[in-house]
Amino acid sequence: MMKTVRLHDLEFRKSIPTDRVQLAINAVAVRVNHDYKGKRPVILTVLNGAFLFSAELVKKFEGECELSFIKVASYDGLEQKDEVYTVMGAEPSLKDRDVIIVEDIVDSGNTIETIITILEQEGVASYRIATLFYKPLAYTKPYKIDYVGLEIPNDFIVGFGLDYKGLGRNLTSIYKLYPTQKPMKNIVLFGPPGAGKGTQAEVLKQKYDLVHISTGDVFRYNIKNATALGTEAKAFIDKGQLVPDTVTINMLSAEVEKNPDAKGFIFDGFPRTEAQAEALAVLLESKGTDVAGMVALEVDDEVLVKRLLERGKTSGRVDDADETVIRNRIKVYYKETAILKGYYEKQGKYHGVDGVGTVTEITERLSKVIDTL
Ligand code: AP5
Ligand code: MG
To answer: How far is CA 58 from the centre of its chain?
Structure first.
């Protein structure tokens, strides 16, 4: 089941599932059948949005009825326009008929007002209003809404006949727009072992209110807690080799899913292969976002070795304890990971930063880049 959908430039999240919509329609149908028993009403469907709701209602109507359609325009994308105008008249003649106006949604009530004016001019015997959705907070008109499927807050919704710029009508659940939604800022912090990714991520995550995910840290946490994942990863990590892609990708996805409200992520130590970069692109796309940029810390190999040997004295990291393992990590970086520079360069997303200097100096250099993303 899709939790989010993207229509044109906007993302919508599921808010009312199909079965709740169906229950609401059934309840309206029961009341309409009760009220129109023995009568022969004209069911006047307001196009385009109400066609699905109306079809369901008509199928459930137990007596005789006739159908008519009216088209009134009041929306241009998200903006409600002031004027509402008739595009198509109602056929057959509505004179002396009992009319059920079927709407998909009633918000300000402008459309309803226009239709009621037309019906009064036509000289109908009676009219009642049925709507699948009703926004009591937005409604400004005096007319009674006789049948309401679901009352909803003042959100912009799509699905079950309702659209955003023509799209979304075929969705069977209801999805709503998150108006305060800001685009996520996702940064890939890149660089060879010991470049200072972890050190800088600690500062940047505070500064930009981002969630920091270090695949190395997650592996080490699993190793410490002797999980199955930890045991599997340890054999590779201790030798300075990469953990296989599928294991790493699944783990990274799970970490991202743990943070549904994140304003963005700092990925540290991921991606390390093209397969991982592709997987990251797919994962973020499913959330309607992408990698804003790769920011790479550039540091000479000999400085890296010195830093890691120094850290190895106290870190307890097996892969820091032995110079040959450290050099192997650097070798693996150039052989398997460095190609990602080209991968992101092609997308115009690579930004190299000098990684030698004080921690504060380097944070400033990184921030200059991140502020532009
Ligand atoms: P990971 O944990 O990512 O290790 P790494 O890439 O080798 O990098 P480090 O964490 O050692 O360095 P860092 O750049 O974070 O630098 P830090 O800030 O700590 O990965 C470990 C292993 O897990 C991999 O080898 C692999 O086996 C596996 N793995 C992880 N991700 C994977 C993936 N995506 N796919 C497959 N396998 C994966 O700084 C280093 C030291 O330098 C510190 O002591 C720090 O205090 C010091 N320092 C930092 N900044 C400065 C500065 N400006 N001046 C002086 N010293 C500094
Ligand atoms: Mg690190």
So the answer is: 34
